[in-house]
Design brief:
The protein is an alpha/beta fold and 483 residues long. It has two domains: 113 residues, Alpha-Beta Complex (Conserved hypothetical protein from pyrococcus furiosus pfu- 392566-001, ParB domain), CATH 3.90.1530.10; 245 residues, Rossmann fold. Helices cover 41% and strands 16% of the residues. The structure holds S-adenosylmethionine.
């Protein structure tokens, strides 16, 4: 056992379940501490190569005892008793998953147990980062204290995508409108072979499997394909309305699209991931089947997944390209250099950029110093980026092309009463409206799709109310057409 400085400890959101901290528990612990109670030591691990502010640093990570640590801090203690999991320090980069699992294991056995939602999140995080599929469903089930079947249901779509064979990649890219010549280059085969696969691959059994009562997760696993492609094949030829119905999404008739949670079937778990329903509604109202959609900052790929299902063609780019998403091509947008990565003219640009500095740290992890995410830009530079992007887009697209621009109000409201906010630091939808108008685009619609306010705990809300802090959950899709 050792005494560690409370200020030296790191709560890593990857290692310790994000949703795992309960204000209620911290409050109870604070009361107990004040009444003289003693607590068992927390569990920590010293590591090196821990990513922080663009550097690799040494850190002491909390594996177990976030509530005790929070309560000690709140009571003004400077140190806390701790035991170390492994005689450290160990390399964070190669031990990320064992650390996550050790933390999960500690949480299984006491106090605030992990909820099934936390366990599912952990299983999905591990499956996503474990691209070699080294962790079997059986091993994960054992570590998380659930049956193997449950883990199968949680991660089968991720595993299917990781194991997707060449035919599946070819089918996916072809349905997104990729030329056979390009597909051949990406999968490393001849154009003739690509044509053969497109014409001869038969997934006709899907309906049989459905009539035998198999669900879509089973079917995706059976063909070793991602869920989006499995849905696309199942719904092929149906009308957009029928597709909404079969996907279980109520079709909204008004310009208020409230979807608190992402539909986990589509898009990868990605910082800033958006609900697939927002994309589907935009496609429904502003495109027709076979139209071409450009997704300049594709992130987790939810736009291409929805395009696949709704039979729109799609071109996606991001500075973070990766193996399991062959449709997302690497492109670093720097409109100062005037480069536009495609000659094809889209019918719709679905543009979901980082919302100013929100999630800056997450995106920084995906970028590098020479090609930083625009979320690390200062305000003026960030606005200038859009001005140049919209001007460039105006030159490169068709007369009838529309932009669907998704962004959120950003105000400096953290710890600041509404009357004292510095409006010079804010960027709101009005600013984007101004920039679009200035660069030759006419704003035609504003659709409200607010972020959920449920992320705030009761305590946090109370504190905001006491200080008259006005939070913001505003998020809108602005539709603009060329003028
Ligand atoms: C809000 S996320 C997109 C999320 C996506 N719609 C989803 O649901 O998963 C914004 C993306 O912009 C990318 N990005 C930021 N700056 C960029 C740049 N200059 N060039 C290319 N991509 C950039 C980031 O890597 C990030 O994936």
């Amino acid at each position: 056992m050792m005494e560690v400085n409370i200020a030296d400890l790191t709560w890593s959101p990857f290692i310790y379940p994000r949703g795992g901290r309960s204000e209620e528990t911290v409050k109870t612990y604070v009361e107990a501490l004040r009444a003289g109670a003693t607590f068992p030591p927390i569990k920590v691990q010293r590591v090196f190569n821990y990513p922080k502010d663009n550097e690799k640093v040494e850190a002491i990570l909390i594996l177990d005892g976030i509530h005790r640590w929070s309560a000690f801090k709140e009571c003004g203690y400077k140190t806390i008793a701790a035991i170390e999991w492994k005689k450290g320090p160990i390399d964070y980069e190669i031990n990320q998953i064992p650390l996550l699992l050790e933390s999960a294991k500690c949480n299984l056995t006491h106090g605030d147990r992990l909820s099934p939602r936390d366990k599912k999140r952990i299983a999905r995080d591990i499956a996503t980062s474990d691209t070699e599929c080294a962790w079997t469903e059986e091993a994960l089930a054992q570590k998380l204290g659930v049956i193997q079947q449950t883990v199968n249901t949680w991660i089968s779509d991720i595993r299917a995508r990781q194991k997707a064979g060449r035919n599946v990649v070819i089918t996916r890219l072809s349905r997104l409108g990729w030329a056979q010549e390009w597909i051949a280059q990406v999968v490393g085969t001849s154009q003739g072979r690509v044509a053969q696969i497109i014409n001869n691959t038969n997934f006709g059994e899907i309906n049989n499997l459905l009539s035998q009562g198999r669900d879509m997760n089973y079917i995706a696993g059976h063909y070793q394909m991602d869920l989006a492609l499995a849905w696309a094949l199942r719904l092929e030829g149906k009308t957009d309305q029928e597709k909404f119905k079969e996907l279980g999404w109520g079709l909204r008739t008004w310009d208020q699209w409230n979807f608190n949670n992402c539909d986990e079937r589509f898009g990868d778990d990605w910082p800033g991931r958006i609900p697939a329903q927002l994309v589907a509604h935009t496609l429904f109202y502003f495109t027709r089947p076979d139209d071409l959609v450009l997704d300049p900052m594709a992130g987790g790929g939810v736009v291409s997944d929805v395009c696949l299902i709704f039979e729109r063609r799609c071109q996606s780019f991001d500075l973070a390209a990766r193996e399991n998403r062959p449709e997302i091509m690497y492109h670093y947008w720097d409109p100062q250099n005037g480069q536009w990565p495609t000659a094809k003219k889209p019918d719709l640009i679905f543009f979901d950029p980082p919302y100013f500095t929100k999630k800056e740290k997450d995106y920084r992890g995906k970028a590098n110093d020479k090609t930083p995410s625009i979320s690390s830009y200062p305000r003026e530079h960030y606005e200038e980026f859009f001005e140049r992007f919209f001007l460039l887009a105006h030159q490169k697209v068709k007369e009838t092309t529309r932009i669907a621009f998704l962004n959120a109000d950003w105000r400096d409201f953290q710890s600041t009463p509404a009357l004292k906010e510095n409006e010079g630091k804010a960027i709101t939808i009005f600013d984007y409206h101004r920039i679009l108008s200035k660069t030759g685009w006419k704003v035609t619609h504003r659709i409200e799709c607010p972020l959920s306010s449920e992320r705030m705990s009761g305590n946090e809300v109370l504190k905001m109310q006491e200080k008259r802090i006005l939070g913001t959950v505003g998020r809108s899709i602005i539709i603009a057409k060329r003028c």
